[in-house]
């Protein structure tokens, strides 16, 4: 008589355990972010920090906003190449719309993949294929991960670098490549995709497996991989240029080449799922890396906060675009 109850209780128990693990993970990320923020506040000169933020040059700040827009436009284009290669092309401005929506949710959700999940879900409404939509986002992220390390390496010829700095860049290049290579392991690949598949489909192993197969098939397209990787490097250089604009706005002597070296390494660290949207980790990484070229603690943290605010403001159109009514499907051609 108790067997049916036991069978019925099993899914509910599993669901509670999953929810508990998610809450524990969130609590850990909040704790790490809070601890790092408090530690940074204790160590730096808060008056110098506020002074830097309040006296930034308006023209350089405006240029930083323009550069963020350029980075979004490039990233939407390279993402579109993947969808086109999978026979699901979308109009360019549709891609830009989805990218802004994803960028907005990346800034408001407590994870680094939340915006990607929203972007994938919005795209699936246009393509009618959830696996293809999710796979396009995952593939773009994986190729961009390789581009992080390569971009840092490209900045070295333009600065006087030490063997230690060269070693650091090479280590991060290997880390970026290794993170992408982890996708070759079935359990890890399924875990990554599982975070992007809509919750109502999370239990459908077949859908997740299909997505993983699509990603792997796309990565084997060498011509596409190279093309998207090159656009990803351009994107990373533009992101580095945002930091260069911020340092110029604060009157701090940091070159574009130095930003090209350090920015990819900073965002490699920030991608680690150990904090609340990178809060605290990002500021500590700015502090550590830019101190290598003489930037003070207050200036490095100020640059980090300015970057976060500028990108956050730039992502606000995504909230408006997301709220607009739109058709559930779209017949598109490239």
Find the structural class using helix and strand composition: mainly alpha
What is the number of helices? 14
Q: How far is the N terminus from the C terminus? A: 60 Å
Measured as a percent range, the helix fraction is over 70%
* Parts with pLDDT < 50 across at least 5 consecutive residues: 1-9, 327-334
- Strand content of the residues, in percent? under 5%
Radius of gyration, in angstroms, nearest whole number: 21 Å
Let me know the average pLDDT. 80
Mass-distribution shape: globular
Largest sheet: none
Q: Would you list the SSEs in sequence order as H and E?
A: HHHHHHHHHHHHHH
Count of individual beta strands: 0
Count of separate structural domains: 1
Report on this model:
- The chain has 14 helices and no strands.
- It has helices at 3-43, 46-54, 58-85, 92-108, 114-127, 130-154, 163-181, 186-194, 205-219, 222-250, 256-270, 281-290, 297-314, 316-323.
- The protein has one domain (14-323).
- By secondary structure, it is mostly helical.
- Mean pLDDT is 80; it is low at 1-9 and 327-334.
- The protein is 77% helix and 0% strand.
Topology, please?
Layout: H1 3-43, H2 46-54, H3 58-85, H4 92-108, H5 114-127, H6 130-154, H7 163-181, H8 186-194, H9 205-219, H10 222-250, H11 256-270, H12 281-290, H13 297-314, H14 316-323
Helix pairs in contact: 2-13, 3-4, 3-6, 3-10, 4-5, 4-14, 5-6, 6-7, 6-9, 6-10, 6-11, 8-9, 10-11, 10-13, 11-12, 12-13
């Amino acid at each position: 008589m108790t067997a049916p109850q036991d069978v019925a209780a099993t899914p509910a128990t599993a669901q509670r355990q999953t929810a508990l693990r998610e809450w524990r993970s969130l609590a850990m990320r909040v704790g790490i972010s809070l601890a790092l923020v408090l530690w940074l506040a204790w160590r730096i000169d808060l008056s110098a920090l506020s002074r830097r933020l309040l006296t930034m040059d308006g023209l350089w700040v405006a240029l930083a906003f323009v550069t963020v827009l350029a980075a979004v436009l490039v990233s939407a284009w390279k993402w579109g190449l993947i969808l086109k290669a999978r026979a699901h092309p979308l109009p360019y401005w549709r891609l830009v719309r989805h990218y802004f929506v994803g960028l907005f949710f990346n800034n408001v959700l407590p994870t680094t993949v939340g915006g990607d999940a929203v972007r994938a879900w919005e795209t699936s409404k246009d393509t009618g294929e959830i696996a293809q939509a999710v796979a396009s986002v995952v593939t773009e992220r994986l190729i961009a991960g390789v581009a992080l390390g390569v971009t840092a390496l490209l900045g070295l010829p333009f600065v006087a670098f030490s063997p230690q700095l060269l070693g650091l860049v090479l280590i991060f290049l290997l880390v970026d490549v290794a993170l992408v290579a982890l996708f070759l392991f079935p359990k890890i690949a399924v875990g990554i995709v599982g975070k992007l598949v809509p919750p109502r489909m999370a239990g459908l192993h077949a859908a997740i497996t299909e997505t993983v197969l699509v990603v792997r098939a796309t990565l084997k397209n060498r011509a596409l991989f190279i093309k998207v990787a090159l656009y990803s490097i351009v994107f990373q250089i533009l992101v580095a240029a945002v930091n260069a604009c911020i340092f110029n706005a604060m009157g701090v002597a940091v070159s574009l080449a130095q930003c090209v070296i350090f920015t990819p390494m900073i965002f490699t660290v920030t991608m680690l799922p150990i904090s609340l949207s990178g809060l605290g980790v990002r500021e500590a990484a700015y502090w550590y890396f830019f101190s290598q070229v003489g930037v003070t603690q207050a200036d490095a943290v100020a640059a980090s906060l300015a970057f976060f605010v500028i990108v956050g403001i730039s992502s606000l159109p995504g909230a408006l675009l997301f709220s607009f009514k739109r058709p559930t499907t779209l017949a598109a051609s490239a």
